[in-house]
Amino acid sequence: MRIFLTGATGFIGSALVPELVKAGHQVVGVTRSDAGAEALAAAGAEVHRGTLEDPESLRSGAAKADGVIHTAFDHDFSRFAENCEKDRRVIAALGSVLAGSDRPLVITSGTGMGSPGHGQPATEDVFNTSHPNPRIASELAGNALLEAGVNVSVVRLPQVHNPVKQGLVSPLIEIARQKGVSAYVGEGRNRFPAGHLLDVARLYRLVVEKQEPGERYHAVGEEGVEVREIAEAIGRGLKVPVVSIPPEKAAEHFGWMAMFAPMDLPASSALTQAQLGWHPVGPTLIADLGAMRYAD
Q1: Beta carbons within 8 Å of 98's beta carbon, 6+ residues apart
Q2: pTM (predicted TM-score)
Q3: Which of 9, 122, 216, 279 gives 267 a disulfide partner, CB atoms 3.0 to 4.6 angstroms apart?
Q4: Beta bridge partners of 106
Q5: What b/e sequence results for 33-63 when a residue is b if at least 16 CB atoms lie within 10 Å of its CB, and e otherwise?
Q6: pLDDT digits over 187-217, tens only?
């Protein structure tokens, strides 16, 4: 397949390009920079210039593709709601050139969108349309395209990790570095789901090859890692004390991360594994935190 990939030079995209190329696909990767273009060419991908701020710059690449994978997202969490709305516009633009065909569009969301509440793990067969997370805009955009006849499926991400980056855990590391303590809220029993980067890349490939309209998949290797355990691993890595922060002090300590630090976000991938034969094999989140070079 000729696959148009947004976010091709990002954390996930950089692992996904070689995964797709190795499987025999032709990859057209989006970048805004000369450095990105050089990296894509070196990885065996064709270069397409475009940006999320200009959805029209992405339409021509999507129009010429046999399939589209959208992994790009602006991770400036100080403008999170605005960036989620930007993602909605990009998804609509990508889908508009695929209408009337069976060419797949794989979009990205978060596992929290599948949360049934009451502490139960998020599942692929749940879409909580009243979820307060602004990221819901991505899946609502996908639903609108699905109703218009576009072959849309969703990959929902947990905290994606390797020894260099770990999703929302990376900001926790920087906060611990700045504050001199590695902290969690309350008892720290709340959980983050996790998935290793290479497992996640393999899942995206399987999903675009499956071409199953309306399906949602969870890139989850670990259903829930307690945030206290994460904070303890960070403390060992940075050689700083590990402390509990009371909920009323969370905003003062964590800043914008205070909205995420106390969340309990367990998520299952049982349906994904059964449907695709995808089974995570990568290292755990704690193992990758242990292998991280904190001095760098």
Answers
A1: 62, 68, 105, 145, 150, 151
A2: 0.96
A3: 122
A4: 69, 153
A5: eeebbebbeebebebbebebeebebbbebbe
A6: 999 999 999 999 999 999 999 999 999 999 9
